[in-house]
Amino acid sequence: MKRKRRNKTIRDYIVRYFVIIVWVVIALLPIYTAFITSLTPFEKLGERMLYPKYFAWENYVEVAAQTPMWEYLKASVIYAVGTSIFTIIISILAAYALSRFRFRFKVAFMMLIVAIQVIPQIVIVTPLYGLSNSTGLYDTYIVVVLAMVASAIANPILLLKGFFDSISSTLEEAAAVDGCTRLGALVKIILPISLPAVTTAFALSFFTGWDAYLYPMILTSSPGKVSMTVGLSRMKDIVTPWNWIMSGTIIAIIPPILIYLIAQKYLIGGLTAGSDK
């Protein structure tokens, strides 16, 4: 009986790790292919893709020299960081209000936040284009950042509200006895406890801003204000070599990977925060 259980356990482990390995291979295959292509001279493309035979690191130098790559990178950093900062400030205040205060139409407001998540960007980009023209904000960084904040703010609010709900209000009551204001309690007590959720919300907002495509494409016209995603899609009209385009793609995925590596220890805890409530 024990032997059968042991054999069953071994089979379960083998199946489990086999599925995990297959999934990892499938997930990483596009990135691996892009990396190999980025290191291959143009005339050698397609000869060998399993492992690199050539290490043409000059592809990265050439793509940066021949295209506005650094302008694309600068714009993406502005959009991602700007979206993250504005989103996290608004989300903290909104989530705290929803968690601690009682007011009319609170349920309706929560439903509105959820509804925002299902509105496609393509539906509102045309009105935004007209509004940005009439207000003089067209072809500026701020109009894209504000549009991305409106698109990214729902998930951070719901995430932070769930975490704030799991924190006992007695901590704030004790702080109030010591003369601390509501805002002071939020900054000095609640936010340090909520670091996993805040870090997760910041990282998710950064990813949303970094992946911006439709808004930078429609709401900007200057080459220096388009994001990496838009710039890479236009590179095929500027350059022909796919090895250059893949070099630009590898450059584009480095910042979000770094953000993920920095915040990874908080991501799981932040995403599951308040799930028991």
Helical proportion, percent range: over 70%
Beta percentage is under 5%
End-to-end Cα distance, whole Å, is 41 Å
Largest sheet report: none
What structural category characterises the helix and strand content? mainly alpha
| Shape by Cα distribution | globular
Mean pLDDT: 83
The count of helical stretches stands at 13
Q: What is the N-to-C succession of helices and strands?
A: HHHHHHHHHHHHH
Low-confidence blocks of residues: none
Number of strands: 0
Alpha-carbon Rg, integer:
24 Å
Question: Could you walk me through the main structural features you see in this protein, from its secondary elements to its overall organization?
Answer:
The protein has 277 residues and is mainly alpha-helical. 76% of the residues lie in helices and 0% in strands. The chain has 13 helices and no strands. The chain has helices at residues 2-38, 58-66, 69-100, 106-116, 121-135, 141-152, 154-165, 170-177, 182-193, 195-210, 214-219, 228-238, 242-271. The longest helix has 37 residues, at 2-38. It is globular, with a radius of gyration of 24 Å.
